[in-house]
Design goal:
Elements lengths: L2 E4 L4 E4 L6 E7 L5 H9 L2 H14 L3 E4 L8 H13 L6 E4 L3 H10 L5 E6 L2 H14 L2 E5 L11 H17 L7 E4 L11 H16 L3 E2 L12 H15 L3 E4 L4 H13 L7 H21 L1
Parallel strand pairs: 3-4, 3-10, 4-5, 5-6, 6-7, 7-8, 8-9
Antiparallel strand pairs: 1-2
Length: 293
């Protein structure tokens, strides 16, 4: 199954037969005072720089979240989407837990964007699914229902995924345009969530055939050595069938896990990408040493 996204110029195809799709997570103001201030002040050049940096690091899609308390989030989303699409050509992911904000982003997004995300909650589905269909966008379907109760088992996640796909189909949205987020939770709160996530990814991939995604950094929240845990989990998830993830693509170890996984899965012809990235890292380190001398 293949999910097609389109930016202002660049097309991205997500699927098991394509290289892994990293979705850059850094335009999210949570615990980022400088970004929070930039959004409040309408300093869109700061967001543009963040978007460009992630694309240079290998992000194929840029996630945009402008949820700042007290701000007009819908207006901020429109401005942020317009500004960011002026400087990058890859697709964008419109990220919010508020329906009006997602709709605002869809109004101004160019190409074929990704909506992040649609939970299996009636109000969300009734309002968002028709808009996604009309806009010819793709979506991340979140394995979560309304309320505070989170699914804890593989079976619960699959049941929710079936609900999302059934409702999408009723609104004329093709199955390949629904990426299933199997909901990765902090492992510090539930030591079994890692295994449940891996099994859920595998089940969705084999039973439903849909592309899958996770918010990778959720796993390590509150834990030491977060980067190592995220990198390890990413490799294991890709092996289980994960085809996309919202993650920090700026981190070198994450970049290496993605390109290494693509190479090992036979998606890097003659290993040329792996070798080129290795040489680029060497050159960067040499330049840094020379500058410090």
């Amino acid at each position: 199954m293949e999910t097609r996204l389109l930016g202002t110029a660049k097309e991205v195809l997500i699927g098991a037969d394509h290289p892994f799709c990293p979705i850059g997570e850094r335009i999210n103001p949570t615990n980022k005072p400088r970004l929070t201030r930039a959004i409040k002040e309408g300093n869109w050049e700061h967001l543009q720089r963040m978007a460009r940096r992630q694309v240079r690091a290998g992000a194929k899609v840029i996630d945009i979240n402008v949820g700042v308390p007290g701000a007009d989030e819908a207006a901020a989303m429109r401005s942020a989407v317009r500004a960011i699409q002026e400087v990058i050509d890859v697709p964008i992911s419109i990220d919010s837990s508020t329906i009006e904000v997602l709709l605002a982003g869809l109004e101004v997004a160019e190409g074929r964007p990704l909506v992040n995300s649609v939970p299996a909650e009636e109000t969300y589905m009734e309002r968002l699914l028709p808009a996604i269909k009309d806009r010819d966008a793709a979506m991340i379907g979140m394995c979560m229902k309304g309320g505070a109760n989170m699914p804890t088992t593989v079976e619960e996640r699959l049941d929710i995924a079936h609900t999302l796909l059934d409702q999408a189909d009723k609104h004329g949205i093709a199955s390949e345009d629904v990426i299933i987020d199997v909901l990765i939770l902090p492992i510090g709160a539930d030591h079994g969530t890692g295994l449940t996530t891996l099994q859920s990814v595998q089940q969705v991939a084999t039973e439903l055939g849909n592309n899958t995604s996770v918010g990778l950094s959720n796993l390590s929240f509150g834990m030491p050595d977060r980067q190592f845990l995220n990198t390890l989990m990413l490799g294991m998830c890709i092996q289980a069938g994960l085809t996309a993830a919202i993650l920090d693509v700026i981190q070198t170890q994450i970049q290496m896990a993605i390109s290494g996984s693509d190479m090992i899965r036979g998606l890097d012809e003659y290993c040329m990408r792996w070798i080129a990235e290795f040489r680029a890292r060497q050159a960067k380190q040499a330049a840094k040493k020379k500058g410090a001398a």
